Amino acid sequence: METLIRHLTSFASLEAPLESLLGDLIRTTKTLKGELMVTPGAICSRISFIEKGLVRGYRIKGKIVRNKYFMGEGDIFISIRSFLTQTPAKEYIECMENCILHSITFKQLNEVLTKFPSFHRHRADILQQYYLLSAEREEMREMGTYDRYCYLMENQSHLVERIEDQYLANYLNMDKGTFSRNKRKYARKR
């Protein structure tokens, strides 16, 4: 939990009573690789911080699986629409590794925000960070296939060591053959 407090104080300091309340409310859980944290039709009721591990957000349409994002240590994840509106999710969030997560419910978060209006600054900074990452991913997906692979290596190279190529190819919106060719091309140029 100390990691989460450090993360929050990187945005702005926390008043001692606020930090104490968060300590009382935040739940730490250990999850296993393959465990689903969110599923379509269920409401995402918790916002989670990853102390250790990796998760992926993905959707299935018909028989097509589309990896939307990967989040690792130091990241916060939610099914954004489901959490913010408390309506059923349309995506899956799966643990790609065993994880240590720190989370708080939607209701608890709103109680904290009511009691400590200063915490709105943290919330705004977290949402801003989340939306900037989302915008970067969308821009990346508009690039050519080799440029997408370069983006991965220049901005998210840690994923290459932790995630199977099939998942990364899907995330980059390319087939496995194109992914392999770009991987070889990138290695030759470096």
Can you tell me about this structure?
The chain is an alpha+beta fold and 190 residues long. It has two domains: 2-142, Jelly Rolls; 143-190. The protein is 49% helix and 23% strand. The strands form two sheets. A four-stranded antiparallel sheet has the order 1-8-3-6. A hairpin with a 2-residue loop joins β4 and β5 (64-71). The radius of gyration is 18 Å and the shape is globular. The protein starts with a helix and ends with a helix.
Brief rundown of the structure:
This protein is α+β, with helices and mostly antiparallel strands. It contains 9 helices and 8 strands.
Give the key terms:
190 residues, alpha+beta, Jelly Rolls, 2 domains, 4-stranded antiparallel β-sheet, globular
